[in-house]
Amino acid sequence: MSAATTSPMIEQQDGRDPGPAPRAWTGPVAAGIALTITGAAGATALAVAYRQAEWGQDGAFTWFWAGMLVFSLPAAYWAVRRDSSARLRLAVLIGYACFTYLPKLLRNPAGPLYHDEYAHWGQSQDIVLDGVLFQQNPIIRVIGDYPGLHATVASLATLTGVTVWHAALFVLILAHVLLTLGVAVLAGQLWPDPRIAAAAAIVYSLNSSFLYFDTQFGYESLAIGVMVWALAAALGAVRSTGTRARAGWSAVMLLLTVAITATHHLTALWLTGMLGLVAIACTVLKAPARTAWVLTALAGVSVATWMAAVSPRTGSYLEPYLGRALGQFSGLAGGSSGSRTLFSQSVAPWWEQYAAFAAPGAALIATAGAAVLWWRRRSVTDPVTRACSGAMLLLGALYFPATLLILTPSGAEGARRSWAFSYLGIAVATAPLIIALLERSRRRISGSGALLLAACALVMVGNTAAGMNPSYRFPGPPVFGADTRAATPELLAASDWLRETHGRGARLVADRYSGLIFGSYGEQEPTTGSESFPTYDLYLAKPGRPMPPALLAQLRDWRFEYLVVDRRMAEQVPEIKIYFETNEPIPHDGRPGFTRAQLTKFDTLPWLIKVYDGPHIAIYRFDFDSLGQRIRMGAR
């Protein structure tokens, strides 16, 4: 039976009078005009917001959200509109994905800005220069073991002749579009209604990582889009009844899984966990589960093999974040000091802060409603859809305990990084509820529709505010202790001087922010300290007191050449409350963590020779042959 004969039957069963058919050109033309105008207005408002922030003027937050919402809300309307055609819906989602990349693109169009961007940009630059994969990265030690993003960007830059940064922008914009479309395809594997698929894509875009974190030059930005398509292929394999179709979907899923495994460790682990949830749900709810278990095993083997053979240090890299977070979280009940105050000294307006607290509540209400709808429809839904949508509900439920980890210093980072994954479950699970609410009214813009658009705006504002500090989102003057404001003219000049006079690849000790610049633009190999290599003890040592002998032996044995000292550490408190690394043993009580004497004592140590001196930055060369000589009483 053709589609032309089945559609009237479906409309009669729904009990709705479809009314006169709209003219074919009305929807696309109206949508194109509306979204072009709102898109141009939104982009202009974003540019104004950044200019206001750059000059320290009021209104940056208002202009920003006016620009975002003036396009996003109409795009959401056209995406889930009943009369929108498949081509129009696809065009809207592509346009929406491109527009939501604008905040990050306008934030830093010319070069790296975020902490991780410096590491990935430098890693890609090294591949272009040296043609070697798996080089150890001086800023994030584990990313050299996952070269998928860097190899892609370096290859594109080499083939086209564009800069590494512009090659990265092309890859990341494409990945952002594919992520948005992938969520729609994933939802489409469960429900044939294209409106549900579009609603899932829109809801997922509200997560806190969508506008800034998963648009940065980072390996998750590429891997998470591939992960969504791998999960969609896995659901296609689970749903398939024919052997050839199942084998085809499984082959696509396995190929994408290998690509993810070579790109980002955390995304590969989440994919394996999601497949495991699907397998468990299929088993419990008596849906075909064999394929799901096989795919879970294949993903697990891929991840385990890579981590064992290529990157055995991944486990030690990830463990401290979760272990310390759980320890600090358990201490909250006892009133310990391992808690954080949300929005402490934040310049975000009150309405952004209130929205940040309200957004998880809105997500909880929507997830609870989705669970009720899933339960009511369980007897009329096919077993695979029932099981897989149940797995998405379980995945979405992980979002809520993770929000509590934001209250701990160590757990905050891990919590933020988990939201991009758990929100996928919320998006796919709540999309049918959204369409069900819209179906309750025949009007094109109903009370339910207006309420849903308002909730969409609230959650987008709140999640973005909770996910990124204002200094990450908005430009402004240099600020000590902010990754995005670390590239001061003085630091850039010092790093350029060291590279031009002493070459690249020198091992040096530095604080977090100096290390970002010296390790990327300066092309050196900085360390900022860790529990096993506490280089920050050099700075903490009191004047006249001996340095830890074991640390000096490590520095000598590992051939460190330079020490970078930023004297602002004795004058200012870092904006993000970190001097060297997350778990540093330095008091954070609102006062500078160092005294001037602690940072100028290096001038009198015989085994350090000052080779560069600026207003705030000093560079010393290690002279370990002079260890044991008397300390000079005067500075050189």
UniProtKB/TrEMBL annotation:
The keyword Membrane applies. Residues 1-10 have a biased composition (Polar residues). Keywords: Membrane, Transmembrane, Transmembrane helix. The chain crosses the membrane at residues 29-50, 62-80, 164-187, 219-238, 245-262, 268-285, 292-310, 354-375, 387-407, 419-438, 450-468. Residues 1-23 are annotated as: Disordered. This is 4-amino-4-deoxy-L-arabinose transferase-like glycosyltransferase. The lineage of its organism: Bacteria, Bacillati, Actinomycetota, Actinomycetes, Micromonosporales.
